[in-house]
From TrEMBL:
Protein name as annotated: Lariat debranching enzyme
Compositionally biased spans, kind Acidic residues: 396-406, 432-443
UniProt cross-references to CDD domains, sorted A to Z: MPP_Dbr1_N
Residues in Lariat debranching enzyme C-terminal domain copies: 235-380
GO biological process: mRNA splicing, via spliceosome
Organism this protein belongs to: Eudyptula minor
Predominant localisation class: nucleus
Keyword line: Hydrolase, Iron, Manganese, Metal-binding, mRNA processing, Nucleus, Zinc
Region described as Disordered: 387-539
Keyword Iron: yes
GO cellular component: nucleus
Length: 539
């Protein structure tokens, strides 16, 4: 089957789907599935815009709300993960995944699903070491810290994914796995993005957690975005035993979704022709969720996952074939994910703007149903309970208090990672960065500036499908020729780029009685990510 893969969408759904329709019309290529590697921006209304960690002047409604309201429907099944520019309050409603609109499915904090027999996994967010060992404690309305920590990867999600034993066909992460640049045309990467050089040479660019998952899962394909540059690599994995067959991962990072940009990739994937066209649960993943349910944490306390170090009675939470069989029997061998999308917030109305509406903490019926079916903890319900009991607050402790908490929480177990890197160069001119020390814009008073009801015509400029340029052929610096040959076999072949074409309380369907206390400021370091005319200055 044909799978389309997109990088950072930034809410431009109309543009993405128009490009796919153009592809079909001009080249008779119709993807069966669209994957998006984060920064999807499922923004339903002005309150959602306030939950995006970007300066106010870059908060634009874009076009997702039309798909949420039912005005439009995605023409192809779309599966996405979260990035670092998201309506975090919306995605937080679906920690285990779910439909954000008809035919558009979010994988959750981490998740695995199946489509036509192809096993697809992913992890949302970006890596930050200072939040990695915390629980999912955040809830709207966010302050300056929690609006960012809400999308930071947590160790429990990585731990769950590491319990998987069965092969993964496709895996998605927003930020790149650390070190992956050593397995591709690093020289060309640094020519296009010279400001990555220091981090590449010091091997600090990218996520160490994603790198750990890459080495453990060894998927056939790994797709990422975040750095706004196209890059391919081919990683041959080491085998653990003589009996184990060699495995390799074809890595591809996608550019952001802008005119004149090469932001879509079409890949041919082997699938099960006897499988149906519905998105399905993955039985092993459901069994892992059940096995690790007792590890759910909704506090700010830092803690490490169980490991074989003498400190834990149990450290292996992988599941048996019997446990997987039990999941299948619970579902009567019907793994189809129910089409149970539900509106949980008012949809943006261009004729009636509501610039000062506050976000509320909402429990989504999809999550309630999913947790009840499989006996799982509803994370948002647990957060609300904890808040009511006074054990969780929606804002950070002062730095001194947090250090004390860490020392008492798990002082005997240091963090797995001693770096603090989100996978993005601090001087990347293609990205908006948020200043920890404050800046010139205040979240508590920022205005919401939705885009006009009629977005720009995106049929403007995309080039014809073509073979991936030699400049981005996958290889290590020492073995260009051999891995270029692997790329030709990989099926990563086509690119799309057409040119010159013409109530505050919690609701069960929210709330936080607190205001926006503790809100600080954010600073815009650059603008390129949301400028439609953006061109890389380094090229």
């Amino acid at each position: 089957m044909k799978v389309a893969v997109a990088g950072c969408c930034h809410g431009a759904l109309d543009k993405m789907y128009e490009t796919l329709e153009l592809l079909q019309r001009r080249h008779n290529v119709r993807p069966d599935l669209l994957l998006c590697c984060g920064d999807f921006q499922a923004v339903r209304n002005e309150a959602d815009l306030r939950c995006m960690a970007v300066p106010a002047k870059y908060r634009h409604m874009q076009t997702f709300y039309r798909y949420y309201s039912g005005e439009k429907k995605a023409p192809v099944l779309t599966v996405f993960i979260g990035g670092n520019h998201e309506a975090s309050n919306h995605l937080q409603e679906l920690p285990y995944g779910g439909w954000v609109a008809p035919n558009i499915y979010y994988l959750g904090y981490a998740g695995v699903v199946r489509f036509r027999g192809v096993r697809i996994g992913g992890i949302s967010g970006i890596f930050k070491s200072h939040d990695y060992r915390k629980g999912h404690f955040e809830c709207p309305p966010y302050n300056q810290q929690t609006i960012r920590s809400a999308y930071h990867v947590r160790n429990i999600e990585v731990f769950k994914l590491k319990q998987l034993k069965r092969p993964i066909d496709i895996f998605m992460s927003h930020d790149w796995p650390r070190s992956i640049y050593h397995y591709g045309n690093k020289k060309q990467l640094l020519k296009m993005k010279s400001f990555f050089r220091q981090e590449v040479e010091s091997n600090t660019l990218g996520s160490p957690a994603a790198s750990e998952l890459l080495q453990h899962l060894k998927p056939t394909y790994w797709f990422s975005a975040h750095l706004h540059v196209k890059f391919a690599a081919f990683m041959q994995h080491q085998t653990n035993s003589k009996e184990e067959l060699p495995k390799a991962t074809k890595f591809l990072a996608l550019d952001k979704c802008l005119p004149h940009r090469d932001f879509l990739q079409i890949i041919d994937i082997e699938h099960d022709p006897s499988a149906g066209d519905s998105l399905e649960y993955d039985a092993e993943w459901i069994a892992v969720l059940k096995a690790t349910n007792s590890l759910v944490n909704v506090t700010q306390s830092s803690w490490n996952m169980p490991e074989k170090n003498g400190l834990h009675a149990k450290w292996d939470y992988s599941v048996t074939e019997e446990a997987i069989k039990e999941v299948l029997e619970e579902l009567n061998h019907n793994l189809k994910i129910p089409c149970n999308f539900t509106l949980t917030a008012a949809c943006y109305d261009p004729s009636k703007p509501q610039k000062h509406v506050e976000p509320v903490h909402t429990i989504n019926p999809q999550t309630t149903e999913f947790c009840a079916q499989f006996g799982l903890t509803d994370i948002n319900d647990r957060i609300q309970q904890a808040k009511e009991e006074g054990s969780v607050r929606g804002e950070y402790e002062e730095e001194e208090e947090e250090e004390e908490m860490d020392s008492t929480g798990s002082a005997e177990e240091p963090s797995e990672y001693n770096t603090d890197n989100s996978g993005l160069s601090s001087i990347n001119p293609d990205e908006i960065m948020l200043d920890e020390e404050g800046g010139d814009e205040d979240l508590s008073t920022c205005s919401v500036d939705p885009s006009p009801d009629h977005p720009p015509d995106f049929s403007a400029s995309f080039s014809d499908i073509r073979i991936m340029p030699d400049s981005m052929a996958v290889s290590s610096d020492d073995a260009m020729d051999s891995t270029n040959e692997e790329l030709e076999k990989s099926g990563v072949s086509k690119q799309v780029e057409e040119k010159n074409l013409n109530e505050r309380p919690l609701k069960r369907i929210g709330g936080n009685e607190n205001g926006n206390s503790g809100i600080k400021k954010i600073k815009r370091r650059n603008q390129a990510i949301y400028a439609a005319e953006d061109e890389d200055k380094t090229e």
